[in-house]
Amino acid sequence: MSDPKDNKGKAPEAPKAEDAPGNKLSTKAVEALLESNAALKNELAGMDKDKAAEALRKMDIAELLTGLAVGGKNQKDMASYKFWQTQPVPRFDEAANDAGGPIKIIDPEKVSKTPDTLIEGFEWATLDLTNDDELQELWDLLTYHYVEDDNAMFRFRYSKSFLHWALMSPGWKKEWHVGVRATKSKKLVASICGVPTEVRVRDQKIKVTEINFLCIHKKLRSKRLTPVLIKEITRRCYLSGIYQAVYTAGVVLPTPVSSCRYYHRPLDWLKLYEIGFSHLPRGSTKARQITKNHLPSTTSTPGLRAMEAKDVNAVQDLLERYSKRFALNQAFTREEVEHWLLHKEEAGKEQVVWSYVVEDAETHKITDFVSFYNLESTVIQHPKHDNVRAAYLYYYGTETAFTQDQKALKERLLMLMNDALILAKKAKFDVFNALTLHDNPLFLEQLKFGAGDGQLHYYLYNYRTAPVPGGVNDKNLPDEKKMGGVGIVML
Question: I need a labelling partner for 195 at 20 to 30 A (CA). Which of 79, 126, 363, 448 fits?
Answer without folding.
Answer: 79
